[in-house]
Design a protein that fits this description.
Largest sheet: 18 strands, antiparallel
Radius of gyration: 22 Å
Mean pLDDT: 80
Order of helices and strands: EEEHHHEEEEEEEEEEEEEEEEE
CATH architecture: Beta Barrel
Shape: globular
CATH superfamily: membrane protein fhac: a member of the omp85/tpsb transporter family
Oligomer: single chain
Number of strands: 20
Length: about 425
């Protein structure tokens, strides 16, 4: 599970873990020795975690050798004998430690994330549909440009009552590059520091047998923004946006017919949400936002899964610059392609080599516009890439792996836990 901000920054979304790792157009990388030391420390920490996974359970660590061997067997699938976390998660009440490396240029080019993810299966007598597991996660991150953050998240449900909920909190100080195109200068990056502690809550109720849900969301964040550059602010950014409160109420409806929430093989997901900010919500801004993501998956053959994604975002009135919609696509830096309207199209084709390993390819097209009149006059971007997956928890249908992607003038790689499109 991961936590990002809607647009770029202020509404928390819970989703399977994915950390964007983009190398292209790195303008703030440094070759200082302390970066090398941080790199070595993070690698050692990740290696220590990966080589001691069985200790992350709630069992007695003073067990005898035979019991230790039995616990090690929990990491093997009973069907094919391969590495699998399912029994460890279910029987040992353990978690999957997800160590990751950040090389996002907007966050300084290098850093580390650790996110232990707990999952608990739910079984309801008399209910034969898919029930997502309850998920609890913590996250801590640190990058070489001084960005840091830590938080906790929970996603769960009460299937008999038809209720789903999400809740999260994050405390962070992030140094992020935003991009603007200036007359006679072309595209230029601007580094800002964001100190904020956003909280997020979402509750929804099932209203019919077709998995149609209606729900409410609320997010609050007091954000202090400081410009980490000596030049004048870009013309579309005002001083009033550097110290403000954002308090957002949202109404949404969604239908989720995917066969699982992590790495779907079939089904579809559609979510329509309207978000409202104003003095009546306790916000310093008066603006509204509409988000409409749609994902669909279907098997072309038994081992060939085809997926398509469309996502449309639009804002009305004047949000702060860091809450403008931005394209979230593999192969382009975060917050680089912003606009009042963004539209993204992607397709991903996954081919299962056997019961565990898969390869995939993807292609995307996005467009952004700052004009309310015609998006056709906006900026366009095409991305493409490939990757692999390993079925790391068969009982939960969780696949994890690495993607590499290319944009117009950038290259990136991503560690993916679940599906890249999950929100």
């Amino acid at each position: 599970m991961n936590c990002i901000y809607s647009g770029t920054f202020a509404t928390l979304h819970l989703r399977p873990v994915e950390v964007i790792l983009i190398f292209g157009r790195v303008e703030h990388h440094s070759q200082r020795l302390w970066q090398s030391k941080v790199f070595k420390i993070l690698i050692l920490v990740c290696a220590a975690i990966l080589t001691s996974l069985p200790v992350f359970s709630q069992s007695d660590t003073s067990q005898k050798k035979s019991k230790k061997e039995s616990m090690m067997s929990m990491m093997r699938d009973t069907l094919d004998g391969r590495l699998d976390f399912s029994r460890f998660l279910i029987d040992m009440h353990g978690f999957i430690p997800v160590p990751m490396i950040i090389t996002e240029p907007a966050l300084g080019g290098f850093g580390g994330v650790l996110a232990p993810v707990f999952m608990k299966q739910k079984k309801v007598e008399g209910y034969d549909g898919y029930i997502p597991p309850d998920i609890t996660a913590a996250v801590a991150l640190l990058t070489v440009n001084g960005s840091y953050g830590f938080g906790a998240f929970r996603m769960g449900s009460f299937p008999k009552k038809g209720i789903k909920y999400r809740i999260g909190i994050l405390s962070s100080s992030l140094n992020i590059n935003f991009y603007r195109t200036l007359p006679n200068l072309g595209e230029k990056s601007f580094l800002f520091n964001f100190k904020t502690t956003p909280v997020f809550l979402s509750v929804s109720k099932k209203i019919d047998r077709r998995n149609l849900y209606l729900g409410l969301t609320y997010a609050y964040a007091y954000t202090k923004v400081s410009a980490e550059f000596s030049e004048a602010l870009p013309p579309d950014i005002s001083l009033g946006e550097l110290d403000s409160r954002v308090s957002t109420f949202g109404l949404f409806t969604e239908v989720d017919k995917r066969d699982n929430i992590f790495t779907p093989d079939k089904g579809y997901f559609i979510h329509l949400e309207g978000k409202f900010n104003g003095s009546w919500t306790g916000s310093d801004y008066d603006y509204q936002r509409i988000d409409l993501p749609f994902n669909v998956f279907f098997p072309i053959r038994r081992n060939w899964i085809s997926g398509f994604r469309v996502e449309v975002n639009h804002v009305f009135n004047d949000p702060p610059f860091y809450l403008l919609p931005s394209l979230r696509m593999r192969g382009i830096p975060a917050a680089r392609y912003q606009g009042r309207t963004t539209v993204a199209f992607e397709t991903e084709q996954r081919y299962d080599l056997d019961g565990r390993w898969s390869v995939l390819g993807f292609l995307g097209y996005g467009i952004t516009s700052f004009s309310d009149e015609s998006i056709a006059e906006g900026s366009e971007v095409v991305t493409f890439g490939t990757g692999f997956r390993y079925l790391i928890a068969r009982a939960f249908k969780v696949r994890a792996g690495i993607d590499v992607a290319w944009g117009p003038d950038s290259f990136g790689w991503y560690i993916v836990f679940g599906h890249n499109w999950n929100r």
